[in-house]
Design a protein that fits this description.
Elements lengths: L3 E7 L2 E14 L4 H22 L7 H14 L4 H20 L10 E6 L3 E4 L4 E5 L5 E7 L2 H5 L5 E9 L4 E10 L7 E7 L3 E8 L4 E8 L2 H17 L8 H35 L2 E6 L10 H4 L7 H16 L4 E4 L15 E5 L2 E4 L5 E3 H16 L24 H8 L8
Parallel strand pairs: 9-12, 12-13
Antiparallel strand pairs: 1-2, 2-6, 2-8, 3-7, 4-5, 5-6, 7-8, 9-10, 10-11, 14-15, 15-16
Helix pairs in contact: 1-3, 2-3, 5-6, 6-8
Bound molecules: zinc ion.
């Protein structure tokens, strides 16, 4: 993957943003380009210094007033100037935000707005408009297959860098997402040894339950090996070649297993969601901090990174298929009865039972179903009214699950899939 930057929602229109990072070979000399990068860096530093001494946060208008004419007189174009003061401001803000010192720029890199470059994907050439009317032409060193994907996308900004040996360009592409109109909700409950997936209709009826095994026990074994080695050589493991090599080997395994798995599951889940036109509901992992459930369901030794990685891949593959993804606070999803909303009690190993209505179900399946329901009750849309968890209508089963469904849930078995 490697090229995904972010997905963002600006106003109403969701967009996918990806960066294409390639080596760029200057055609002809590159003195002016280097000069531009140095000038750019020094200008950013100058503004950082000025803003640093002002304690208030400056608006864009104020920044413009303070620095624009100065930058233009240095030879920068209008959009260069804008990029420079906005970038300087963001550097100061983030340094202040984490209590750091005044930023000092060493690297040569510049953000360039789309008004200041011309990109030709057919000939793979890039023309940059530099300071004082200069231009630089660069040949992009990338295969046409890699670029093919971005035909028809918009590009709106790029970053050009010099790393001492050559130039790099990251071009930011974006396209609008024509989101598929959801017909069902799919929720994914991540656990240490399994991933459980539930698909519900938009009015709360259960359509499908599915379970994947995870390789996290294997990952944990490698993690434990690393810890053991580090414990045995608490101070020296970094410096003894053989020890470091052993640690790297385990680290490599962890990386391969977790990425390999995340990609596979992401693809599989998104494919299923695509077939059923699902909107995908994921657990908001940031919200887990507040929930005491975390200890039970997540292995602290592994941390959340592995779940984030899986979610990242699910999200990526879903966007590729124009499916919407939402994050839902998983609070109490594994402790409430999906039928009547009362608290569930442990019944057997991994099986929960409701004392009030007698509902019995697999713990992880319940969590996934409740996640779906939380989405449905929170985001009533497409003209479908939300179904509140604890407000069953007297004449029907609000969960859409009939008695035999409970039976089916009791007997949910891990499918051998991965
Ligand atoms: Zn109940």
């Amino acid at each position: 993957m490697g090229v995904l930057v972010s997905y963002s929602v600006r106003g109403e229109e969701p967009v996918v943003i990806e960066a294409l990072r390639v080596r760029a070979l200057p055609e002809g000399g590159y003195d002016h380009l280097l000069e531009f990068l140095k000038l750019y860096r020094d200008a950013v530093q100058m503004i950082v210094n000025r803003i640093w001494s002002i304690s208030e946060r400056l608006s864009k208008r104020k920044l413009h007033k303070l620095f624009y004419s100065n930058l233009v007189s240095m030879g920068f174009r209008a959009h260069h100037a804008k990029e420079i003061y906005i970038y300087a401001e963001s550097l100061v803000e983030s340094a202040r935000g984490n209590g750091g010192r005044k930023p000092v720029l060493r690297k040569l890199s510049a953000r360039v707005d789309r008004y200041d470059y011309r990109l030709d994907l057919d000939s793979m050439t890039l023309t940059l408009k530099l300071h004082s009317g200069y231009e630089a032409r660069l040949k992009l060193a990338s295969s046409s297959e890699r670029v093919e994907k971005f035909r028809g996308w918009g590009n709106y900004e790029l970053v050009v860098k010099y790393d001492g040996s050559g130039f790099w360009v990251s071009i930011y592409f974006k396209r609008a997402v024509k989101a598929v109109k959801p017909r069902t909700v799919m929720a994914i409950d991540l656990n240490f040894d399994n991933i459980t997936l539930a698909v519900l209709t938009l009015d709360g009826g259960l359509l499908k339950l599915k379970r994947f095994r995870t390789p996290l026990r294997k990952v944990l074994t490698h993690r434990i090996w690393v810890e053991r080695i580090q414990k045995r050589y608490p101070r020296s493991w970094r410096f003894i070649k053989g020890v470091r090599k052993a640690i790297d080997r385990h680290g490599e395994k962890i990386k391969n297993i977790s990425w390999g798995y995340a990609h596979k599951v992401g693809d599989l889940v998104a494919e299923l969601a695509s077939k059923r036109s699902s909107i995908i509901a994921l657990e908001d992992l940031d919200k887990l901090r507040e929930n005491n459930k975390k200890g039970k369901r997540f292995n602290k030794r592994l941390g959340l990174w592995i779940y984030r990685r899986i979610q990242f891949c699910v999200e990526y593959e879903a966007r590729e298929r124009n499916l919407e993804v939402v994050k839902i606070n998983p609070r109490s999803t594994s402790s409430k009865c999906p039928r009547c909303g009362k608290k569930l009690a442990e019944y057997r190993h991994r099986v929960l039972r409701c004392r009030k209505c007698g509902f019995v179900g697999d713990r992880d399946a319940i969590a996934a179903i409740n996640l779906c329901k939380k989405f449905i009750s929170k985001y009533p849309r497409c003209g479908v009214p939300g179904v509140a968890l604890n407000a069953p209508k007297p004449d029907e089963n609000p969960s859409g699950m009939q008695g035999n469904r409970d039976e089916a849930m009791k007997n949910i078995k891990p499918h051998k899939l991965i």
